[in-house]
């Protein structure tokens, strides 16, 4: 087995640091592990993507280490029954960051 590259050593170090920083914060360790597993299959040749994810991880580490972070979560849009079944129905409106649909307001002239 060959020696790990400098970037690989940095990523493993980041992984350990994120796990340490996430101790005692609900959801942090599971999120870190899931995120690293999700991207474990990235080809070594995709250096730009790997470096981007590394920088993103460093920023998340800074946030975890700051006194403001009490937990770590994921913002995702919950799937509806038609989306899970692969139905081709469109969603009723644009999604807001909170997971609901935004209400569009139209104004009629004169008021």
Automatic annotation (TrEMBL):
Residues 9-62 form the Complex 1 LYR protein domain. Residues 102-111 have a biased composition (Basic and acidic residues). It comes from Cricetulus griseus. It comes from the Eukaryota. Belongs to the complex I LYR family. SDHAF1 subfamily. Residues 77-111 are annotated as: Disordered. InterPro entries: Complex1_LYR_dom, Complex1_LYR_SDHAF1_LYRM8, SDHAF1. This is Succinate dehydrogenase assembly factor 1, mitochondrial-like. GO terms for biological process: mitochondrial respiratory chain complex II assembly. One of its GO terms (cellular component) is mitochondrial matrix. The lineage of its organism: Eukaryota, Metazoa, Chordata, Craniata, Vertebrata. Keywords: Chaperone, Mitochondrion. Its main location: mitochondrion. Pfam families: Complex1_LYR. It is found in: Mitochondrion matrix. CDD domains: Complex1_LYR_SDHAF1_LYRM8.
């Amino acid at each position: 087995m060959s020696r790990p590259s400098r970037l690989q050593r940095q990523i493993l170090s980041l992984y350990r640091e994120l796990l340490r920083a996430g101790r005692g914060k609900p959801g942090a360790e599971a999120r870190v592990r899931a995120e690293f597993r999700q991207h474990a299959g990235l080809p070594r040749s995709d250096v730009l993507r790997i470096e981007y994810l590394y920088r993103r991880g460093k920023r998340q580490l800074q946030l975890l280490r700051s006194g403001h972070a009490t937990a770590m979560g994921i913002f995702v849009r919950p799937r509806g029954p038609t989306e899970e079944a692969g139905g081709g129905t469109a969603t009723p409106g644009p999604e807001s960051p909170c997971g609901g649909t935004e209400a569009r307001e139209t104004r009629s002239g004169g008021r």
